[in-house]
Amino acid sequence: MSLLEVDDVVVQFGGVTAVDHASFVAEAGRVTGLIGPNGAGKTTCFNVISGLQKPNRGRVVFDGRPVTRLSVPRRSRRGMGRTFQRLEAFGSLSVRENVRVARDIHGGFAGLLRPTAADVDGLLERVGIAAYADERADSIPTGTARLLELARCLACDPQLLLLDEPSSGLDETETDAFGHLLAELAAEGRGVLMVEHDMDLVMSVCDEIHVLDFGKVIASGAPGAIRSNPDVQRAYLGYSDADDQELVR
Ligand SMILES: Nc1ncnc2c1ncn2[C@@H]1O[C@H](COP(=O)(O)OP(=O)(O)OP(=O)(O)O)[C@@H](O)[C@H]1O
Questions:
Q1: CA–CA separation, 176 vs 111, rounded Å?
Q2: Burial of 20 (0-12, 13-18, 19+ CB in 10 A)
Q3: Which of 58, 152, 51 is nearest to 105 (CA)?
Q4: 41: CA distance to ligand 1 center in Å?
Q5: 148 Ramachandran zone, left/alpha/beta (phi>0; psi -120 to 50)
Q6: To test ligand 1's pocket by mutation, which of 42, 46, 213 has the most ligand atoms within 8 angstroms of CB?
Q7: Cβ contact 200:117 at 8 Å
Q8: Given the CA of residue 36, which atom of ligand 1 is nearest to it?
Q9: Which residue ranges form the domains of the chain, and what is each CATH number?
Q10: What is the value of pTM for the model shown?
Q11: pLDDT tens, 174-228?
Q12: ipTM, 2 decimals?
């Protein structure tokens, strides 16, 4: 049984079919990539999975149970965590306070009663931003803010992380460290599903990749197979004679 199953999902916005009978899975203990050209439907899929967008048809199954009708907070309590392309931290709070607030909101009343596994400073250390703990969130570099989003997500101890463009704004060293962290999180048994445009990162860290184009899943497989798939090359490059081409960002 897969941790996450997206089953025959369709989303229409007026005359636009943003997601077109898409089916794919993300497994616990693995990093899964969801890639595709601009406008392919990746963010809309994330919105359906996390509960922000109701699909016209199809269903989402998480940890063996359908969640298609559940609200965003209930999915979060079941173990889904998400980061957004747009940064969501509270600008006037410090980096440490932002993570604490995320943990407290998620924990709610239950959080007051039982100790949480997520130690705030430990999380900042883990994602590599402990040096910024006392800085205001609106004063830190974009890459650091991106890592703060990840720390806020991890503060809820999710079983599945949905990461939307997590490496944008990270420099090369930060991206390398981030790739290692993703592998570690998967090794702990969490599932990671990532929308990402940095193909070097996707190809090096993902165990499996699903490719969307015009809302349809056109390929699923390991990085090597995806890289050499002619349909994928065509979708990215816009022409078919792609024998000597590689996937480009
Ligand atoms: N709320 C909306 N109303 C109307 N059309 C929308 C809406 N959201 C998305 N779309 C359209 O649905 C399609 C898929 O968009 P989506 O943002 O899911 O793609 P994406 O793969 O995430 O793109 P990008 O890589 O550029 O972020 C696009 O044609 C987009 O214009």
A1: 34
A2: middle
A3: 152
A4: 6
A5: alpha
A6: 42
A7: no
A8: 21
A9: 1-79+160-166+187-249 (3.40.50.300), 85-157 (no CATH)
A10: 0.89
A11: 899 999 999 999 999 999 999 999 999 999 999 999 999 999 999 999 999 999 9
A12: 0.96
